[in-house]
Amino acid sequence: MSQRKATVLLEHYLKALRLPTMGREYGKLAAVCQADRADYPTYLLRLAEREVQDREVRAAERRVKAAKFPVVKTLDTFDFAAQPSLNQALVRELVRGDYIDRHENVLLIGNSGTGKTHLATALAFAACQQGRRVRFFTVTGLVTWLLERREERQLERFHQQLERHHLLVLDELGYVPFTKAGAELLFEVVSRAYERTSLLVTTNLPFEAWTEVLGNERLTGALLDRLTHRIHILEANGESYRLRESRQRLKRSTTTRTARNTS
Ligand code: ADP
Ligand code: MG
To answer: What is the number of the ligand 1 atom nearest to the C-alpha of 77?
Structure first.
């Protein structure tokens, strides 16, 4: 067989076997292995390793995309010094994702701007990297989805889709009060996730105030009972990061202005 024909056939087979990285790399790696005097099994091993690594990266990218984060945030960019009340050790433990295997939940409580959404996204992003299926919702967004799916008689299907995830993020509980139907639909999500899918909830409300947004004491009790049975609570009660940043910006601009005026 001619060299040319062999190359065309090999590339065709690698494509049919869905091994794109091997198809791209086999020539370059052959040259490297020849220079290293590596044997055939070593060449094949290195080639297969690259395919596996690339495949993991592609799968993680797909999971991040499917999670539908509003903005991707990671722990690297989170400044713990700006939020000293936060239990950093617990955040570092949670980012490893073992709580998800144990079907435990996480609640992030704090005022607006204290980094709840940032942290929730960072934890959920880490879970995607670890091979876990994640979906991010704002609570109001989720309730709207649920109401729409119910209208279309697709509610059960939607619940089944949710149940295929390892972790659901429910961001911003408490900013908007629910209708009776909305609260019941949210309760169903929490109830079906119980001991199956981890929930990561962020809220600005202390537990005492949940009845007010959910509008029903019994339902709130039942929801809290399930949510908090196995839960890690992270509290951020420092000042708003946004506020702090704009204050610092303002301070910087006034000091430069004063400096300019005095010079
Ligand atoms: P919350 O959800 O509590 O209202 P966000 O997570 O939306 O707050 O934070 C507001 C903005 O400030 C975001 O851009 C976020 O990335 C940033 N931010 C908040 N806290 C921190 C922090 N400690 N370190 C770095 N960025 C932060
Ligand atoms: Mg938020």
So the answer is: 25
